[in-house]
Amino acid sequence: MRGRESAAILRRVIRLLPLLLIVLALPPAPAAAATTTVCALSCDTLDPSRAQQETFPLPDKNINGRKIQLHVSVPDGMDWASIDLGQAGDSVWLDRSWDGGATWEGLLGKASIPSTWTGTRTLMYNIYDPVGHRRGVIRACGDANAVGCTDWLYPNVCDKLCDNTSPSQAVGDTQPVAPTSIYGRTIRLHTDANGMAWATMEGNGPGDEVWLDRSWNEGASWPDGSSLGRTTTGRTTMFATRDPRAKLYGGAIRACGKEATHSNGSCTAWARPTPTRAGAAADALMYSYDTYQAWWPSSWWNSAATLTALIDYARQTGNHDYDWVIGRTFDVNKGSFPAGVKSSDPIDGDFISRAIDDSAWWGLAWIAAYEYTHDQRYLTEATTIANYVNGFWDTSTCGGGVWWDRERTYKNAVTNGLYLRLTAALHLDTPGDSTWGQRAITAGNWYLNSGLINGANQVNDGLTADCRNNGQTVWTYNQGLAIGGFDELYKATGNGAWLTIASRLANAASTGIITESCEPNCDDNQKQFKGILARYLAELGDQPFLQTQANSLWANDRDALNHLGLRWAGGSPNPADWRTQASALEALTATQSPAGG
């Protein structure tokens, strides 16, 4: 019996074998595109009840009498979809594309209408990914016995002008990189003062093509910016290189072309436009700002100094593109963080940690924010920080001065320069104050007589255990903080003696091109020191010296993407990151004409 059953099974398998072979030969079904959670100001799947705004920028889509709508909150950079006038089982979702609509993540937030309801909505999703340097487009879709979608939202990029603008509207013509050539044709990249770009081909013939590529990640990829304005006329239209709506400010661009009878093409190098020196430096700096974590990863005090540099830039130039960064940084970072998240130390809240100097850097940042915006919460925060720092003023060792750390191990120049500047600024910004003013005078007198300033009017790093100048490195930011502290004390008191001291310290630092003693092997802290000196020298008006710094770093310390390195006189190696960028931005902002450097 068992043998007959086995034979029958075998015969059935043999009969099904051709069908099985056909199935195995079929290509695999395409897998659904993986959806990665995007975090910009908020993360994907935020509830629409938390939207700051609701707009309807696109026409509704009608599917068999159902209404599909795309809802957008511009302040959040997010949107959601809804279906109304529907029946149970009808559904709605979002599609999001990172390559201009060629491919997309589908069915985002898909929701179906429950029984007894006539409509529903999705959760909110980000339109853009500034942290990942991607620009998205998005649409609302629905299924009500048929599938339909709205148009894609924001297919064009708009800054001061929008994509596909005529070059006749260009404001100037700069060629930021060398042209390229192919088969006797010359291809050039052009940019203007509005950050718009276009491409031209010289010596072109019938059928020759020229175009632009635009990248949001410094030329690593350009999925939504390939072959922009492709034309056989020899000149493309203009395209924007900044997308403030998407919080993408540092787009890179290149010009490309091909000769009609050959398939290969040629492109210039990637470049960022330079509408102004300081503006170009600020755009490149913002490339490294993490909009979700709201800082420049991953340095805590450097982020405070960098925010101050950005505020100085805005105040000097009148450019308000980055004003949102101030409030964003404040709101996200005001709380507490365990060690390793924002610093190697825990952050206790209110930007305070065991590092007294780190805390004071944030105090100066919020003083700058208050003086720029007049928002009282920033002055309140600076006062909170200053009270904490003041708790480490100690007359039992060296007759005064603020300790560098909570463990009270060292009295040094940076912490006391910060304290002097902070107390004097609080006196100026606090109506009717007497407390902070007296503290500033006490700090100034102590600093002047502490021994921190050597015989050459330079500031050494700190004091020995027996309260003598320790002879350690004269870091540029120690010199800068002393200059800025005494100058602010002069403004707070009107006593010209303090200005004389600040000027004497400035004269000792104003020779040649500013150089840090550690160059070119400075650590992440030291990379930012020189900008602090430039910031406070600017207050004393040493413009010829500062203009020399700006001219040198622009000519010798910059690449085509407007990265600015450690060595303002140039040279190799020349490390560059957001810290060196912020430092150089201070020098560019410090000139009389910061827009032009």
Automatic annotation (TrEMBL):
GO biological process, one term: carbohydrate metabolic process
Coiled-coil regions listed in the entry: none
InterPro entries: 6-hairpin_glycosidase_sf (IPR008928), Glyco_hydro_76 (IPR005198), MUG_Protein (IPR053169)
Any single Pfam family the record assigns to this protein: Glyco_hydro_76
Signal peptide: 1-33
Keywords of the record: Signal
SUPFAM superfamilies noted in UniProt: Six-hairpin glycosidases (SSF48208)
Protein's recorded name: Putative alpha-1,6-mannanase (GH76 family)
Lineage summary: Bacteria, Bacillati, Actinomycetota, Actinomycetes, Pseudonocardiales
